[in-house]
Amino acid sequence: MISAGPFPLMALIAALAALVGWAFARALVPAAGGLRGRAGAVVLDALLLGVLGARVAHVVLHAPDYLAGPLAIIRLGDGGYLPWAGVAVALAYALWATRRQLPRKPVLLGLFASGALWLVAAMAVFAVQRSTIALPLDVALADVHGKAVPLSAHAGKPLVLNLWASWCGPCRREMPALVEAQRAHPQIGFVFANQGEEMADVAAYLAQTRLEADNVLLDADSLLMQRTGARALPTTLFFGGDGRLRGVHMGELSRAGLQARLRELE
């Protein structure tokens, strides 16, 4: 798995893109005049404000999703950005910051270089993910009663595949939101595939928490982690009705972050 949720590879790509934009803007400004440092700083400031603007616009647009858990607003790795709002904020700031002495063209070209690099890299990462991770329809797992349930039973409809364990704190914290979403979105399949635990442990956890989740399955050999390339728990994979990967999130999902993912499946 190349992109594994909150901040791994995509954060690194974003940092690299920002560095390229900073260097590009500086290189285009003449050394004389002492404006090189200022040009690079404006590019970085514009990029940061653009990210914040995209986040704020998304939160405002989907405010009801954040009312139940306002702290999710600052979880930037949880997903949820409005790209065009971010672009508008970044450009507006860049135009304002270059209204006097600072050359405008180098700053705008630096922003363009950053955005283009990030976009191309992000598309490449997702293309690799989609080509290497598919819904493993040939896998059959046992339910809490020991009955074999093939994942092929969910073919033809969007599916949320959650890899979890009862000893995993983030798994336990996100589970209520996932169960609520399962009830609220009957058109989307949900599979909670426990990784590596015994049936008795899973049954005890469900009884203790009183979670009424459907499709809780046991993957005693952690086969799905191997097949999907997941390296940590929880990992949640989102598949379209065609069985192709639409998104991956490693780490705890907030309710707001989950709703953003589900909207992409509907």
From TrEMBL:
Keyword Nucleotide-binding annotated: no
Subcellular location: Cell envelope
UniProt xrefs under Pfam families: Redoxin
Gene Ontology terms: biological process: cytochrome complex assembly
GO MF terms, alphabetically ordered: disulfide oxidoreductase activity
Gene3D superfamilies per UniProt: Glutaredoxin
Keyword Ribonucleoprotein among UniProt keywords: no
Chain ranges of the Thioredoxin domain: 128-266
Gene Ontology cellular-component annotations: cell envelope
Record keywords, A-Z: Cytochrome c-type biogenesis, Disulfide bond, Membrane, Redox-active center, Transmembrane, Transmembrane helix
Membrane-crossing residue ranges in chain numbering: 6-29, 41-61, 81-98, 107-128
Top-level taxonomic group: Bacteria
Protein name: Thioredoxin domain-containing protein
Species: Stenotrophomonas daejeonensis
